[in-house]
């Protein structure tokens, strides 16, 4: 594929990585922030012009770092999660509102910094917002029963049934994997190799859905293992956790999603241990399950085990090549939490010879977990660059490998974005923006591995 050549940016890159770009150290090379669009401050480009149940604008821009994907060239795709529910609204629905799940297209303008500070400046621009919907009916809850008002998005039409962040949009007669449920909590996003479809993982089901990139219409839902689902559903996380003995923990479902360079396999990873695994105690409390999904047949083929180190959960996974991946572990501390960040680490894993644990209980699966090595200590690198630990975003969740810069050697880029929970102004205007950090690394940092980017196919390469 074509390499992106940023012209005089090359000189800045080489000043960091040396003549061949092989210093064996991952470095912060740029950081940027996004707080507004052409629609205004804290406004996305959805065109929605009404307020949600809690009074927040339906077009509120925020949290877009829940998932991040490279869309080829200088374009990236990003998703917010289930909407602005960090401020109390109604505990019967865990403060969720009828926010329509969406994805954003960003242009990332990376420019040389003239020898001042970091090698690059990064200016993200919001270019488009797409709303996610189903052409067939979805199941919405009865707001009258809970006394919290209407639940279906007000923009619904017979042919456009929008998904929603409201936690009560489910069928009580099915398990949490029912694909007609309207509730959707987007966490990971990846792009098909032809650029025409996007894949999104979710915490409510968990689900992995395929959408048309241009229209936002759902094309299909992939079949995931039944042991990931809960059988007793509730609009409140605590009740859903307390009334189930197996399945994903509420609000800790399929957090991360990767796609292999050939575009044929999706890899989804849970944020935390399943209820039945954690109940076994010991190492199983740190056991996360990863599923591999064959895109062509639309269902899971294998399952692998991943063990947490010291973080509270995993936020993302992205593919280095056909069998090696980077996994983002983090705590929930830092900017947005009122505390200091401690653990934000990215590990490298290899699934080439990983054991299939799909039929194993937690204790057995632990003994067959994939090996991993530390690739990047994010807190260490950011603090070394003058960013204090209380200014490091608490929820750094979006992770994507981006375009290479090449000149007498190759510099790869790793992009990390934050989910700020739609909390706009923590300590005054603009103090909690959507942030993107760009790290540069060379082949030497991969310890013998090779980075193989996803190859664009056809004409849809924007």
How large is the count of helical segments?
A: 6
- The rough form would be described as globular
Oligomer: single chain
Largest sheet: 5 strands, antiparallel
Radius of gyration: 21 Å
β-sheet strand percentage: 25-35%
Contiguous runs where pLDDT drops below 50 for at least 5 residues: 1-23, 458-462
For the secondary structure, the number of strands is 25
| Average pLDDT score | 89
Tell me the number of structural domains.
1
* Helical content class: under 10%
Q: Structural class from helices and strands?
A: mainly beta
Task: Give the termini separation.
Answer: 13 Å
Key attributes of the depicted protein:
mainly beta; 6 helices; 25 strands; 8% helix
Description:
- The chain has 462 residues and is mainly β.
- The protein has helices at residues 9-17, 143-146, 237-242, 275-278, 362-366, 378-384, and strands at residues 27-34, 36-37, 40-41, 67-70, 75-79, 102-112, 120-131, 133-134, 161-162, 186-191, 197-202, 208-212, 218-221, 254-259, 265-270, 287-294, 299-307, 313-319, 324-330, 344-350, 372-377, 396-401, 405-406, 410-418, 434-441.
- The chain has one domain (9-446).
- Strands 1, 22, 23, 24 and 25 form a five-stranded antiparallel β-sheet that branches.
- The protein has six helices and 25 strands.
- The model is unreliable at 1-23 and 458-462 (pLDDT under 50).
């Amino acid at each position: 594929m074509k390499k992106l050549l940023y012209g005089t940016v090359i000189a800045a890159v080489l000043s960091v990585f040396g003549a061949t770009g092989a210093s064996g150290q991952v470095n912060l090379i740029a950081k940027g922030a996004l707080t507004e669009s052409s629609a205004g401050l804290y406004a996305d480009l959805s065109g929605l012009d009404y307020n949600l149940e809690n009074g927040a604008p339906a077009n509120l821009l925020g949290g877009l770092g829940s998932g991040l994907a490279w869309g080829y060239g200088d374009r990236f795709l990003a998703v917010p999660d289930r909407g602005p529910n960090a401020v109390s609204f109604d505990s019967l629905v865990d403060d969720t509102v009828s926010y329509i799940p969406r994805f954003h297209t960003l242009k990332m303008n990376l420019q040389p910094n003239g020898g001042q500070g970091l090698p690059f400046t990064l200016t993200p621009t919001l270019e488009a917002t797409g709303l996610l919907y189903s052409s067939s009916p979805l199941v919405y809850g009865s707001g009258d029963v809970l006394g919290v008002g209407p639940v279906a998005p007000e923009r619904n039409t017979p042919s456009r049934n929008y998904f929603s962040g409201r936690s009560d949009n489910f069928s009580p007669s099915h398990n949490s994997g029912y694909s007609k449920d309207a509730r959707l909590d987007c966490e990971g996003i990846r792009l098909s190799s032809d650029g025409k479809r996007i894949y999104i993982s979710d915490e409510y089901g968990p689900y992995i859905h395929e959408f048309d990139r241009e229209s936002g219409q759902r094309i299909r839902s992939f079949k995931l293992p039944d042991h990931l689902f809960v059988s007793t559903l509730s609009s409140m996380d605590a009740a859903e956790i307390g009334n189930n003995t197996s399945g994903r923990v509420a609000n800790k479902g399929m957090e991360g999603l990767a796609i292999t360079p050939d575009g044929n396999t999706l890899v989804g990873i849970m944020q935390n241990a399943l209820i039945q695994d954690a109940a076994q105690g010991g190492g199983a409390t740190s056991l996360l399950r990863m599923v591999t999904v064959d895109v062509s047949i639309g269902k899971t083929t294998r399952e692998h085990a991943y063990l947490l180190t010291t973080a509270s959960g995993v936020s993302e996974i992205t593919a280095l090549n056909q069998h090696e991946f980077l996994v983002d572990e983090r705590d929930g501390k830092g900017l947005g939490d009122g505390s200091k960040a401690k653990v934000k680490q990215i590990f490298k894993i290899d699934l080439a010879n990983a054991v299939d644990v799909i039929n194993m209980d937690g204790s057995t699966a632990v003994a067959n977990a994939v090996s991993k090595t530390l690739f990047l200590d994010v807190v260490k690198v950011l603090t070394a660059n003058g960013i204090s630990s209380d200014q490091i975003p608490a929820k750094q969740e979006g992770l994507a490998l981006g375009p290479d810069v090449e000149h007498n050697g190759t510099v790869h880029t790793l992009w990390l974005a934050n989910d700020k929970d739609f909390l706009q102004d923590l300590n005054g205007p603009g103090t909690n923006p959507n942030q993107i950090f760009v790290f540069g690394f060379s082949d030497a940092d991969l310890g013998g591995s090779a980075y193989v980017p996803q190859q664009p196919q056809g004409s849809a390469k924007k």
